[in-house]
Write a structure and sequence with these properties.
Blueprint: H1 3-43, E1 49-63, E2 67-79, E3 86-98, E4 101-102, E5 107-108, E6 112-114, E7 119-122, E8 125-132, H2 135-146, E9 149-164, E10 167-168, E11 172-183, E12 189-192, E13 198-201, E14 205-212, E15 214-216
Antiparallel strand pairs: 1-2, 1-14, 2-7, 2-8, 3-4, 3-5, 3-6, 3-9, 9-10, 9-11, 11-15, 12-13
Domain Late embryogenesis abundant protein LEA-2 subgroup: 75-178
Subcellular location: Membrane
InterPro entries: LEA_2, NDR1-like
């Protein structure tokens, strides 16, 4: 038997061992992924439920030329409806908008882990000082105020992760929209700006809303 043939006999068992180890590793990874997938499909996490509890208006002033100053305190609650899945809330920002125009700066909410069937409440302030709005938006606001109801949308954007046991999913985009109807029959003062548009300045008025929010994940 030649030296070359002898080396070939030594290499074959090594190759077989490597192949077996590789096949075992791949099979183990596939099995783990399959178990995670089955667990995920069985539990199938349900998106959280957001509720806008109340809004306190400290400033809502429209001045010339179409500059809006807003100060609101928002009480927002979220409920985790899942019995076996926890939720991580990451980098959530809340802000107010009117007719699809953002009228306050975003306020960062603290990162939060929510256990199964648990509730979380936030009460952030949102501010916007002399925010320019288009003239047609100012006209719409004047019309809404003339009928006594102004619709402001409280929006939350950020990321969520799901936790099942020790497994934590990747990030999912969270988009929340909460309608807040502000009744102008509260404390207010009517002022005329240079464009002839009436606007309302309201301070320290709390509106109990308890409005369900639309949630996209």
């Amino acid at each position: 038997m030649s030296v070359k043939d002898d080396c070939g006999h030594h290499e074959n068992p090594r190759k077989k061992l490597y192949r077996r180890l590789l096949a075992f590793s791949v099979g183990l990874i596939i099995l783990i992924l399959f178990i995670i997938l089955i667990t995920w499909l069985i539990l199938r996490p349900t998106k959280p439920h957001f509720t806008l509890q109340d809004v306190t208006v400290y400033a809502f002033n429209l001045s010339s030329p179409n500059l809006l100053t807003t100060t609101l305190q928002i009480t927002l609650s979220t409920h985790n409806p899942n019995g076996k899945v926890g939720i991580y809330y990451d980098r959530l920002h809340v802000y107010a908008s009117y007719h699809s125009q953002q009228i306050t700066l975003p306020t960062l909410l603290p990162d939060t882990y929510q256990r199964q069937k648990d509730n979380t409440v936030w009460s952030p302030f949102v501010y916007g000082v002399a925010v320019p709005i288009p003239p047609y938006v100012a006209v719409n606001m004047n019309q809404d105020q003339s009928v006594g109801r102004v619709l402001v949308n409280v929006r939350v954007e950020g990321r969520v992760r799901w936790r099942v046991g020790t497994f934590v999913s990747g990030n999912y985009h969270l988009n929340v929209n909460c309608p807040a109807y502000i009744d102008d029959s509260g404390r207010k003062s009517i002022i005329n700006n240079d464009n002839g548009l009436d606007h309302v300045a309201t301070a320290g008025v709390k509106y109990q809303l308890v409005m369900d929010c639309h949630v996209d994940v």
